[in-house]
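Listing S7. Sequence submitted for prediction.
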Amino acid sequence: MASNHHFMRPSQPLSSSSTSYFYIFVSIIALTSLFLLSSHYLAYYSSPPVVRIESLKPTKQYVSVNNDDNGAASAACDYSEGKWFYDPTVRPPRYDETCKEIYKGWNCVAGNRSGAAEIVKWRWQPNHCALPQFDPLRFLESYRNISIGFVGDSLNRNMFVSLFCSLRHVTSEVKKWRPAGTDRAFTFLKYNLTIAYHRTNLLARYGRWSANTKGGELESLGYKEGYRVDVDVPEGTWADAPSFHNVLIFNTGHWWWAPSKFDPIKSPMLFHENGQPIIPPLSPEIGLDVVLRRMVSYVEEKSKQGTVLFFRTQSPRHFEGGDWDQGGSCPRSQPLSLQEVEKFFSVGNNGTNVETRIVNEHIHEAIKGSAFRLLDITQMSEFRADAHPSSAGGKKHDDCMHWCLPGITDTWNDLFIAQLSSMT
């Protein structure tokens, strides 16, 4: 019998009962094997798998490549260019909706936003390299005894909260305090690592302005009220930040295109320098250029030696059917296609969300030749019309500007940390 070649011959002849048990055993194995093989082929041919192209996991996903001996990611990689892919087998998010620092309007899981759990299953894949996976414990160990400051509007707070929740998930020894004019800050005590958020809308100091009954240059031009913006004075909330932090991430832009706040007729921006109004008055676009140049110079002058400076590009909005105060909404459940992105954001279309790329042009020009490095999150974010709080934001209108947490700002922090590790 052929099967005899696979067994050692016993030293004594088998009894008749032993022989019977042996054949029964072999028969069971054979029948079981036949059943399993038949089941496999039946399942394969009767129910072939349906695979969407975007659900295919790329090779080397989230694996550090081109690293140096210290594990730092190569600076040659452009993490900002790539595409999103859907990964249904994604690991649990790095933190969840129980993180208390998440602003209620951004907590899309707790707010029962439709598809909130799907948002984190989309992964960013750079075109020519892999994005290193964020390791919060390694980050805490690597950046002991330093301070990281986020300076900007609520979109920078969105990013700050993402980083805090990621780190808080792995350590409970945290102190909350308010150094250097911060809105809020946390120190992870075991590592003496501080992360802080400084709230500022325009970077420059601003406040209400009303015409003087005694007259003046602005009054002579017919201005009765508006907002005074001092282009050469940083807002007090962050003025001390450059001398305090080791790493700074700045942003601005959304408030510069906010007619509900700075109405060009009823409440215009009135720019001042050296305490005096700039005559003729500047348009907001020119005013933004002046403020950016002044603030970049101020930060370079006041920063401690060795401070790492980033300027984050504009976070895109995704209002459809009108702006936020015109019934606009963001009903998407998946990222946009490349063609849809261009329809949303092409400057030539002059659409609702067009300011994103316009602001970036101002930022690029302002930091040219400076110590600032660009943290480019715009392109990757333009695709993610599905990742906003939408109607779950708790407002009277859809929130298509901020981002759900957990969500896309986690990936912003991946880019930030990858770039930071390539320099330190």
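Caption to Listing S7: primary sequence and predicted structure tokens for the chain studied. Residues 16-46 form the longest helix (31 residues). Residues 1-75 have pLDDT under 50 and may be disordered.
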